[in-house]
């Protein structure tokens, strides 16, 4: 040991075990260790022995009680020389008079000293460790003292090295800093040496070794390791060039501004970043147990020019909770836990060019009780600063994915129209279903359930279903672009309506059966990319078609047919079809001929007629496939010869 304290551990049950310490157990004449006995105590000279018992392990601590300061003139209880303590200790663990374990300690402790000389300004030159080791004995960690098990430490005397000569550190840490490498011709360390090793081995001295990573001579280059980390955002203190479409919005703390959004799996993610110019409207289900508060509304937002703006927050209270509480579990307890939570949050970002000018937030609060299921609503809307009278004029006139499709009723005095699909709630009945707008580029499928009586008249049922489907489309035209003007008819395309097919099949007065019910509404929107604005594609709607699919409704009888009501599901689907902006070039004659031999476009592939006799065929050994191929060729040749007229004449002769 080289310090005033050393710790060790005794493994095993320490109950009934006596620990003792003996000072200078080495015989002065012979130099051998004296025979240890169990009659010692826990104090010997300036040394103390402390034992901390444990379950199966006991901590043994040996500490020095004297001072380690160098002696000043006329001072006592100090160190007369820098090497202050040189003693040999022995720690014994005995149960009665039987020795269980012993520990030998060689103590060489130097006195504490402080530097009082002049400091030199000459810097120590540290060699490049890629080419030369910093030290020839890495295990020499203590200056002026012998490190145990470090056989290359020149400060270890031969007597000390005898204590650990059989347990020296190996490898680089033990002083072997230039081991022979496998490519060296004189090295035989490889377990399996290939036959070509003598021709490609390296003739070099051990001073020129690649063990540290490089040779002494030769060009070196830093490895280009690809990074899989997200690049850090520009610091607010540095110049910020503004947002581009799709960039995450940054807060004052240089973090993402997050609002709960739906993932690809349909679940809500609470820490989803808000993308610039990407509006959305999501609904998330939660209860009181799993409810979590979102990002605080006092967070300031980076405008895009390293400036920060505060959110304008308006709080409102929900009185009618029926639109948000979709399910309630029956609780039998007398007291129900309730808490004020956020029912909905509506964000409006006012933007101009690449910067955010203003952020308005409306927060709806309400009480949520234990056992209730809450449908939270989160909407984010980006409005241009150039908007006038509620009509938004975008710099990119084309549609962007996720934006609502603009609809108009140009035959009415108020041209404002709507194109929606259902947003079911509760039991999914059509009577309680709400609407949500059709978003551009997002294929959707929704529906609701209509209650139908067994005595329902089929004509009235068809009219009722058609009325509910037509309520989704309160428009006659659809805007070609997102900034279509109501005053310009060329900015709109008329909706093509296909009436439902009716077969005029009579049910013969049967109750509970109605054919040709237009239960499915199909909305097909054809669009094309007609250009780009600042690198963002400009997409334009070319045509809109609405059609109906009919079904046969039949009353479903339950147990005992006691219920006279049945259910009819009605659905609405939206499909976006992209077509090229320009008609494709006609197919040339060469392309038609080539298509006949294209194996990817035809079931019969003539170029692969001889594929079984090639080496690419792995269904059976090549020799067998070649033999079968030659046999088949021989049979074909034989059939051709026998079918020749001269062969029959020769055969008759």
From TrEMBL:
- Tectonic-1-3 N-terminal domain mapped to chain residues: 112-221
Membrane-crossing ranges are 629-647
Q: Domain (Tectonic-1-3): give its ranges.
A: 241-384, 398-579
GO CC list: MKS complex
UniProt record similarity statement: Belongs to the tectonic family.
Self-association or partners: how does it assemble?
Part of the tectonic-like complex (also named B9 complex).
Protein name stated in the entry? TECT2 protein
């Amino acid at each position: 040991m080289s310090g005033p304290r050393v710790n060790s551990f005794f493994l095993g049950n320490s109950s009934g075990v006596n620990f003792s310490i003996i000072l200078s157990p080495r015989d002065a004449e012979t130099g051998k260790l004296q025979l240890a006995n169990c009659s010692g105590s826990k104090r010997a000279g300036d040394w103390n022995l402390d034992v901390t018992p444990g379950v199966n392990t006991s901590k043994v601590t040996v500490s020095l009680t004297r001072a380690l300061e160098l002696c000043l003139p006329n001072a006592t209880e100090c160190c007369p020389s820098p090497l202050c303590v040189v003693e040999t200790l022995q720690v014994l663990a005995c149960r009665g008079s039987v020795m269980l374990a012993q520990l030998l300690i060689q103590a060489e402790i130097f006195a504490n000293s402080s530097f009082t000389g002049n400091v030199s300004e000459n810097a120590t030159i540290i060699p490049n460790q890629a080419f030369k080791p910093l030290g020839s004995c890495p295990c020499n960690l203590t200056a002026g003292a012998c490190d145990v098990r470090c056989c290359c430490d020149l400060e270890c005397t031969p007597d000390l090295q005898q204590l650990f000569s059989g347990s020296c550190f190996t490898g680089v840490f033990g002083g072997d800093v230039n081991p022979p490498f496998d490519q060296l011709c004189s090295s035989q360390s490889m377990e399996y040496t290939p036959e070509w090793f003598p021709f490609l081995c390296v003739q070099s001295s051990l001073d020129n070794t690649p063990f540290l990573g490089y040779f002494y001579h030769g060009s070196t280059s830093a490895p280009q390791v690809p990074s899989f980390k997200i690049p850090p955002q520009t610091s607010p203190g540095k110049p910020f060039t503004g947002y581009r479409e799709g960039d995450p919005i940054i807060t004052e703390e240089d973090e993402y501004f997050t609002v709960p959004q739906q993932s690809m799996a349909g679940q809500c993610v609470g820490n989803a970043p808000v993308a610039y110019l990407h509006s959305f409207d999501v609904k998330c289900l939660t209860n009181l147990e799993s409810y979590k508060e979102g990002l605080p509304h006092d967070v300031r937002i980076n405008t895009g020019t390293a400036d920060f703006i505060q959110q304008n927050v308006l709080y409102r209270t929900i009185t009618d909770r029926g639109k948000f509480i979709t399910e309630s579990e029956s609780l039998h307890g007398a007291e129900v836990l309730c808490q004020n939570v956020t029912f909905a949050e509506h964000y409006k970002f006012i933007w101009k060019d690449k910067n955010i000018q203003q952020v308005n937030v409306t927060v709806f609060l309400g009480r949520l009780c234990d056992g209730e299921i809450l449908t939270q609503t989160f909407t984010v809307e980006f409005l241009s600063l150039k908007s006038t009278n509620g009509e938004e004029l975008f710099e990119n006139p084309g549609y962007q994915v996720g934006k609502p499709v603009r609809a108009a009723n140009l035959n009415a005095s108020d041209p404002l129209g709507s194109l929606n699909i259902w947003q079911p709630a509760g039991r999914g009945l059509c009577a309680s279903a709400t609407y949500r707008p059709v978003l551009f580029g997002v294929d959707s499928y929704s529906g609701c359930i209509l209650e139908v009586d067994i005595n329902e008249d089929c004509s009235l049922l068809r009219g009722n279903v058609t009325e509910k489907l037509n309520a989704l489309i309160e428009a006659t035209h659809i805007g070609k672009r997102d900034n279509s003007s109501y005053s310009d008819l060329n900015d709109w395309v008329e909706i093509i309506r296909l009436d439902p097919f009716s077969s005029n099949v009579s049910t013969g007065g049967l109750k509970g059966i109605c054919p040709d019910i237009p239960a499915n509404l199909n909305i097909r929107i054809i669009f094309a990319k007609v250009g780009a604005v600042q690198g963002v594609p400009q997409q334009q709607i070319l045509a809109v078609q609405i059609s109906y699919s009919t079904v046969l409704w039949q009353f479903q009888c339950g147990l005992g047919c006691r219920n006279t009501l049945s259910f009819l599901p009605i659905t609405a689907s939206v499909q976006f079809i992209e077509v090229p902006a320009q008609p494709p070039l006609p197919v040339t004659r060469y392309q038609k001929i080539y298509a006949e031999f294209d194996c990817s476009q035809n079931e019969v592939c003539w170029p692969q007629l001889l594929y079984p006799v090639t080496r690419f065929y792995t269904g059976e050994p090549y020799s067998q496939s070649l033999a079968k191929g030659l046999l088949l060729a021989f049979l074909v040749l034989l059939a051709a010869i026998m079918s020749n007229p001269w062969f029959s004449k020769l055969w008759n002769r």
